[in-house]
Write a structure and sequence with these properties.
The protein is of the alpha/beta class. The protein has helices at about 25-30, 65-70, 85-100, 110-115, 180-195, 215-230, 275-285, 340-355, and strands at about 5-15, 35-40, 45, 60, 75, 105, 110, 120-125, 125-135, 150, 155-160, 170-175, 200-205, 230-235, 245, 250-255, 260, 300-310, 315-325, 330, 360-365, 365-370. Helix content is about 25%, strand content about 30%.
Length: about 375
Amino acid sequence: MRDVRFFGAGDVGPQRADPHSMFKHVAPMLHKADLAFCQLEPVLSRRGTPLPQARLAMRADPESANAIRQAGFHIVSFASNHCMDWGQEAFCDTLDTLSGQGLAVIGAGRNLAEASKITVRECLGTRIAFLGYNSILPQGYWGTNERPGCAPLRAHTVYEQIEYDQPGTPCRIHTFPHRGDLTTMCESIRQAREQADVVILSFHWGLHFVPATLADYQREIAHAAIDAGADLILGHHAHILKGIEVYRGKVIFYSLGNFALESPFAFAENLADKPTHKELSTLYAKMPGPSTPPMSADSLKTILVDCLIAGGAIKSVFVRPVWINALSEPEMLQPDEPRHQEVVDYLIEITRSQGLNAMFKWVDEHVAVE
C-alpha cells in the first residue's frame, strides 16, 4: 500500500469555445494528484428545455467533460441545484458524457439507488469510497425509485419570532436535516466503511453568497457523517469559501468556493434583466452585476484541498490558496505572493467568526489544517 495524494476542488463549469482553457493555470498542479475530485454545476448537453423552477438554467457543451478529465480530475459530483435545469434528457446526457470520459460520477443517477450508490476507487492499494448529497433542491431535482435526479439530504427551516409582541421584528432561523435522509446517509457511510479504507463525502449545501455564515443543519449533518465513519467532508454551493472545522480529528470544509466556474452571465442572455436575478440581487449585496467583475471579491479567493493518505488513513490535510482571475480561471498562488497570505487570512477570519476550531500552520511552505 503506497501513499496516495488526493486533491479536492469546488465548483467547476466551463462555458466557452475552448473549455480546456479554463484549467490551463492549474492543470500542472492537478496532475500531481493520484486522485482528484470536483463538483460539476451545469448540465453537459445540447438537448433539453429549461424547467420552470430553474432560477438560472445552466448548460454547457459536452466537450467540458473532456476538459475536466484532461485537467486532472477523476471523481465528479453532479449532485447540484442545477442538475435537472434542462430536464431529464440533458441530465442523463451529462451522466453518459462524464462516464464516457472515464470520470466516476457520484450523487446523481437515473434513479435514487444509482444516485446514492457508493463509489469505491482503488488507488495505489488504498480503497477510497465516495458519496455525494445535495441539500439545495428545487422541486423534482432529487431522484426517486422511478425518477432520475440527485441524492437528497433535505433540510427544513423554521422561523421563530423573537419578540412575539413586536410585529415586524426580525426572527430567529432554525434549520435541521430531514431525519429519513440523515438516517439513510449514515447507513450508507457505515456500508462504505466496510468496503473502503477511507470514506470521503461531498455535500452541496449552505447559504450562497453570504460571507462566513453557516446554516445549523450543516453542522448537524457533518458531525453525524463523521460519527458514522466519514473521514473527510467537502462542501460546496456557496460560491465563496466558508470556515473549516476539525471534528473528532476529521476535517470539514464547509465550502470550497468556486474553482473553475464561469460567471452566471455566461449561462444566460440578459441575466441582469431577469426578475429572478433582480430578486437575488436585492437579497445579496455582493451578487455580481454585468458591469462588475465576474464574481464578488470574496468569490475570487479559493483553495485546493491537498491530502496525504498513508497506511489506509488520511495523515495530513493542507490547503493550497488559489485565485480566480478576471476570466473566471483559477490560478495557483505561491507562498511568497501577497494574495496567498490574503486567502489564508480570510480562511482564519471566517473560521473564527463561526466559532470553528480549525487552526492553520505553515509546514515546509504549505498550510496545514490542524
